[in-house]
């Protein structure tokens, strides 16, 4: 596996594969790889001729008082995991490489980027959309891979792709969970044993909401009943929205840790966000 740190270096490394008309897959990440990331790498390696993964903790998608400084970082460990999972090129740019001084061009997906996570973190999806568009322009992949855990992010990226007429397929891969049901996240390392026990209310609540929805009852009410009865957490939101299909999405805080999760509903449900 080759590690590349500059835009010019990545473009040069991809020149021959493009000339050979090889199918390029891209997996944008912020590192701290877990089995969810590995599933994306392996999917790309199986479906594409060459897999590029980016490793960049994107400061533009963190708001004030968020966890940018303490976000988990382990480049050496991530590189080993990426290589083992079939990644061919690991792009590890600096902040200045992607955001040169006086950077002033931003991408905004207005309506979808302003609800749920976007309402809670007002500049988050502006940062996500901008860095992804830059990575798409630099890499020019045939397909890009994202995890379904970040369902709103996937919907924002798909909207940007469609409205800006980019010739890229977006593959949304299933959520990967630990045996206890908690969705894998780089932020799970922040959780103490007690925190994790409280956090398990999130997948339980979503399962209850999905069952209620299938029975024709209110998915949001069923999920909130469980979350509101759980000590040690704060509910940021619970809502049904069209996130590449009718989706029950929720976010909680356990201590200072922000966790999100969602479940795709099996019947059409009125949008509430």
Could you characterize what this model shows?
The protein has 273 residues and is of the alpha/beta class. It folds into two domains: 2-173, Rossmann fold (3-Layer(aba) Sandwich), CATH 3.40.50; 186-263, 2-Layer Sandwich (Pantoate--beta-alanine Ligase, Chain: A,domain 2), CATH 3.30.1300.10. The chain has helices spanning 7-19, 35-47, 75-84, 95-98, 117-120, 124-139, 151-163, 193-199, 201-214, 219-228; strands at 2-4, 24-29, 50-55, 89-91, 143-147, 169-173, 234-242, 246-254, 257-264. Helix 6 (124-139) crosses helix 7. The chain is globular. The relative contact order is 0.13.
* CATH architectural name of the largest domain: 3-Layer(aba) Sandwich
The oligomeric state is: single chain
CATH topology of the largest domain: Rossmann fold
Instruction: Order the strands across the largest sheet as they lie in space.
Output: 1-4-3-2-5-6
Low-confidence stretches: 269-273
Helix content: 25-40%
Number of strands: 9
> What's the CATH class of the largest domain, please?
Alpha Beta
Radius of gyration: 19 Å
Number of domains: 2
Structural class: alpha/beta
How does the major sheet shape up? 6 strands, parallel
Give the ordered list of helices and strands.
Answer: EHEHEHEHHHEHEHHHEEE
Number of helices: 10
């Amino acid at each position: 596996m080759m590690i590349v740190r500059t835009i010019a270096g990545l473009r040069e490394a991809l020149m021959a594969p493009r000339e050979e008309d090889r199918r390029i897959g891209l997996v944008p990440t912020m590192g701290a790889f877990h089995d969810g990331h590995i599933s994306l790498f392996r999917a790309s390696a199986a479906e594409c001729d060459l897999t590029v993964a980016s490793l960049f903790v994107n400061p533009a998608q963190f708001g004030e008082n968020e966890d940018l400084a303490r976000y988990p970082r382990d480049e050496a460990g991530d590189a080993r995991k990426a290589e083992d999972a079939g990644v061919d090129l690991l792009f590890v740019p600096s902040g200045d490489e992607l955001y040169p001084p006086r950077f002033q061009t931003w991408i905004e997906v207005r309506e979808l980027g302003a609800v749920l996570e976007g309402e809670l973190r007002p500049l988050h999806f502006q940062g996500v959309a901008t860095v992804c568009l830059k990575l798409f322009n630099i890499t020019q992949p045939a397909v890009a891979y994202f995890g379904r855990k970040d369902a709103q992010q996937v919907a924002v990226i798909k909207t940007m792709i469609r409205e800006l007429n980019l010739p890229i397929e977006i593959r949304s891969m299933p959520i990967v969970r630990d045996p206890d049901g908690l969705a894998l996240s780089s932020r799970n390392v922040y959780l103490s044993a007690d925190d994790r026990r409280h956090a398990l209310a999130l997948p339980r609540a979503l399962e209850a909401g999905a069952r209620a929805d299938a029975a024709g009852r209110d998915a949001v009410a069923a999920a909130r009943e469980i979350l509101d009865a759980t000590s040690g957490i704060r509910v940021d939101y619970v809502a049904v929205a069209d996130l590449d299909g009718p989706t029950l999405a929720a976010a909680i805080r356990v201590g200072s840790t922000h966790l999100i999760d969602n479940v795709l509903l099996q019947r059409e449900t009125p949008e509430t966000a």
